[in-house]
Design brief:
- By secondary structure, the chain is mostly beta strands.
- Helices cover 11% and strands 51% of the residues.
- It is built from 1 helix and 5 strands, in the order E-H-E-E-E-E.
- A hairpin with a 4-residue loop joins strand 3 and strand 4 (49-64).
- The two termini are 13 Å apart.
């Protein structure tokens, strides 16, 4: 299992933090696997810098393209909360 540091823009970051968004759609350029941890780091596109806020989420399920209309080379990951 791997840990992936990922840039996350404010709107999706805030929705994930509130528990409203429980998935991540990404280019599958890191060979994501169930059990991996995503460290989502809040990125401010205006200042082009990280805000210092971050979340850890565990990947619990993955749909990879071309399954179910997901584009080839991309994936949708279901996220649980990582307590570690």
């Amino acid at each position: 299992m791997a840990e992936h540091d990922l840039k996350c823009w404010p709107v999706p970051f805030d929705a994930t933090e509130r528990g409203e968004k429980r998935f991540e759609f990404r280019k599958n350029d890191r060979c994501y696997m169930v059990g991996d941890t995503l460290v989502l780091r809040r990125w401010d596109p205006h200042s082009e810098s990280y805000t210092g806020r971050w979340l850890r989420r565990r990947v619990t399920y993955i749909t990879r393209g071309p399954e179910f209309g997901c584009p080839v080379g991309y994936c949708v990951m279901s996220l649980g909360i990582d307590h570690g």
